[in-house]
Amino acid sequence: MSTPYLRIRNLTKRYGHFTALDDVSIDIVKGELICFLGPSGCGKTTLLRAISGLDIQTHGTVEQDGRDISALPPAKRDFGIVFQSYALFQNLTVARNIAYGLENRKQPRAVIQQRVKELLELIGLPDSGNKYPSQLSGGQQQRVALARALAVSPGLLLLDEPLSALDAKVRIHLRDEIKALQRRLGLTTIMITHDQEEAIGMADRIVVMSNGKIEQVGTPFEIYHQPASLFVAEFIGAMNLLPATLVQQGEIQLGQARLTCPVDGFATGTTVRAAVRPEDVVCTGRTNGHANSFEAEVQELEFMGPYFWLSLGGGALGEHRLRAQLPRQQARELDLRLREFTHLHIPAEHIRLFPDGYRHG
Q: Phi-psi category of 285—alpha, beta or left, where left has phi over 0 and alpha has psi -120 to 50?
């Protein structure tokens, strides 16, 4: 990794006896788009507020571009911020909203006008400078809030759940716009979200948080396919988590089925949780020569447009239930029917094991 642009070390934030951040450390390189992801109360907003200086940490340090900013007020830090609520001045025009930070810095009027014009072009609202926020849609207002944050050319952009107040279609469109804009500007960006799809679709790296701690830091691919804990496995995407027993090295007992899989770090006889993504459950419809194949009953079949959700049980699974996600065409070709049995195959490389009973969050 390159030299960190933002260096956070041992950040702790306490409110009385409650610890909101617990010894958090992370490095962020210049130009990255990082998402802080986690459930409500996990500490992601507290971490963003500590970085911005809006809520100074109890212990720990924050360095930006080699400068210790740990105790500086927000006005002395180099960032722009976009809030969930837009926080636009309703009595000011769009142009005046964007110009606000530049006016506070006593920039020349001609410089301000040129910068506002550039930003209106950048966000796709070149003719909206004389409008008021109430005359714009939610998505347009969020674009203006983004332009205002960018007006002072900050070294760091902070996005506090900026899309959560928008409807689904606008959210997806603006998500793509923000990502493209961030790439074009090469601007180091931290975004808070509780939306997994948003984080996976936008981030260079995701920071998964729980109970004031960092559970895992990695690319979207790593977070999704190589979860470091049972919490991450449960929290990110859909996941089957089934009780199993390690019967010998490289083999687990799951119901009546014996499955091969990597078992590093577990002793024979250990009870574990076997984690399998629904899309990694392969329905073959009939017996095949694959290892890790067994038979189960189709107990639920739910059409979801491009794919089907299957709930499988009985057979080798016994009382366990297994969810599978099949492309629509494959489900049709297999002619799957409720209460009929089908053969399944779970590739060994798609099974991950975690200690049974572990919960963090």
A: left
User: If you average pLDDT over residues 81-88, what whole number do you get?
Assistant: 89
CB 70 within 8 A of CB 61: yes
Residue 322's CB is within 10 A of a number of other CB atoms, namely: 21
Single-letter amino acid, residue 42: C
Cα–Cα distance for residue pair 117/322, rounded to 1 Å? 56
Question: The dihedral of CA 146, 150, 151, 154: what is its sign?
Answer: positive
Using CA atoms, how far apart are residues 358 and 361, in angstroms rounded to an integer?
10
Measured between its terminal Cα atoms, the distance across the chain in Å is 30
Q: What 3-state DSSP class applies to 358?
A: coil
Within 10 angstroms of residue 295's Cβ, the number of other Cβ atoms is: 17
Q: What is the mean pLDDT of residues 106-110?
A: 94
Q: CA 282 to CA 85: how far, in whole Å? A: 44
Give the pLDDT band of residue 359 (cuts 50, 70, 90): very low
Query: Measured between alpha carbons, how far is residue 9 from residues 41, 57, 183, 209 in Å?
Result: 21, 11, 27, 16
* Cα–Cα distance measured from residue 234 to residue 360, given in angstroms and rounded to the nearest whole number: 10
Q: Is the dihedral of CA 27, 33, 39, 43 positive or negative?
A: positive
Residue 357: per-residue pLDDT? 65
Phi and psi at residue 224, in whole multiples of 5°?
A: -75, -45
* Contact indicator for 33, 189 with CB cutoff of 8 Å: yes
CB count in 10 Å sphere of residue 302: 10
Q: What is the DSSP string of 262-328?
A: --TT--TT-EEEEEE-GGGPEE-SS--S-TTEEEEEEEEEEE-SSEEEEEEESGGGTT--EEEEEEH
What average pLDDT does the structure give for the chain? Answer: 93
- pLDDT tens digits, 233-253: 999 999 999 999 999 889 999
CA torsion angle 295 300 304 308 (round to 10) = 10
Residue by residue, DSSP assigns 62-82 as EEETTEE-TT--GGGS--EEE
Distance separating alpha carbons of residues 230 and 31, to the nearest angstrom:
31
